[in-house]
Amino acid sequence: MSNQGQISWKTLFNPQFNPGGLNAVNLSTTSRLFDNFESYADSTALQVIWTTTAVTRTLETTAPLRGAKSLKGVVTNATNQIKAAIDNSIFQYPFPKKLRYISFKATVDSGTANFTFKIWGSAAEATNYKEWTVSPKDKYTDTIIDLDSDNTESFPAPSATGASYEPTTINRISFEDLTNSRTYYFDDIIFYYEYPLVDLVGFGTEPPINIGTAGSLHGRLNSIHADLKGLEGQTTQYAKQGIAVAEMGQTLQWALELNSDFAPPTTTEIVPGTYDIEIKKDGFFTWYKRMTIEKEIVTQANVSLFKTAPSLSPATLSGATNVVMSEDGSKIVYSVLPSRDLSDDKTGLWILDTFSLPLGFNSGSKRIADGDMTDATYIFSPDSRQLLLTVSEGIFVIDTGSFISQNQRVNISSTADDILAEWKLTKEETNQSLIRNLPPTLSDVLARKSSAFIFSPDSNMIAYTASDSATLPDDLVKPLPGASTQTQHRNIEPGHTYVYDIKEDRNFLISDQIVTIDNNDSLEVPALRWMSSSRHLLWAGSSQTVIMDYDGTNRQAIYSGSYVAPSVFPFSNTTKLLILTNLGSTDSIPNLYTLTVK
Hints:
Strand content: 35-45%
Structural class: mainly beta
Oligomer: single chain
Helix content: under 10%
CATH architecture of the largest domain: Sandwich
Mean pLDDT: 76
Radius of gyration: 27 Å
Largest sheet: 6 strands, antiparallel
Low-confidence stretches: 1-28, 89-97, 195-269, 356-362
């Protein structure tokens, strides 16, 4: 007997505004246009919403930053402010874990003139605030503010925080400390805020499907069908509240549609047992998993759908060779070789920051060294801030964050081995600190019986390649209800690669062939990399690129075209990959392309 069903949910939430590639950081973050000044009929209408101190504010229509209108402010005194109220009926207090990012465009009449961007509460402005220093230029600058992240590499750090700062009471934004006698322009002020269980149209989907009490299934999806098929021996007893049910012989069919945007999850009772679950959406690979449902235990499956026809966009135009990713995945370095079609200022060593795409922005590659890199090799330092560059002229240590010319580089050939030994020691000490708090048996396997291991970005998973046989006993950590029911491999074999889930004490076989997992890539060996979600792995094989779940299931070949294997890399933005390809043209030098997979 088999049980079949199909659930269709309406769209839960559509992004309200999406200008010029400003996309959400993840699929639980969506955008809301605060003000792009297009709705104001004239300066008088603008001045009702935007009030100022020592700034003459007008609606700019002759040279706006974007669209047809912008806010123009002429500063008349050193003590100044341009402010507006945040409507809490729109942005829905409380703000914690809801309002997360604010982005805006800004420019100044000439050169650079700093100002302060501030969020604050009107009831206690003197102490209830948070502010950032912004440096606009005479060409408009996109600024992204992360309200509650310590990631100061990708976002500007707060310059000050009030003693009584309380996000739940913030109801104002302002531009302050503008340089006297200067003219500023502002446009496209956008709020990005977080809702749990929200899916955005056009970005794939990451809906949670929860199989819970007494084997219940519930979730929120966006125009996606969820098929549930019971295996042999299961009964057809389902709770029928709110569900249209029709029995036809031995098959039970049911359908459900939520009728309101933020309706609570609906629960359908399912008899405990083993089920095949499929999630389908047009234009995306089908997600499939066989799951065991236990009575009164909640089991959650985190689902991501990937495009069957991902789009390519060029990230480089002058060619890219010898592409290397840093071990922490934050940077990618490559060479642009001399050519009669290229000027000297294009050749050399270039670096691309994978964290330059937090909201869809791409700051592009930066040139960090000039010269002919035809036979160059380079090694990242453990913190990714330096490169050991070897060329025919010698060996050099260069900074990955700034440019240095050939005549400024210092040859350190005599001390290169010492530097590499120091970097190796630093890496070993870091690894020891990471595994110190793991169960002793697992720590021993990683330290003595693995050739390489690397933690997932959230540090909850470990990918490792075994160099010797071992057995992981059960119950290394206290069992968690609802842990994964996927097939484990706790008898470890040399040469095989596994993922260990630290929280759930699960060990999954990923590959029984030799792969590299530490970004020391070989053209003859596939590479395995963590994606930033920490729930997926990227497999870069000789003929195709595969994304899989961390437990080795749902292996989906998202790219099967020609490329320079294994040069495909994840971005911090989970919607994109970076791939090195000449698009099948053997006469062309490969370039780096972004591959939009979600």
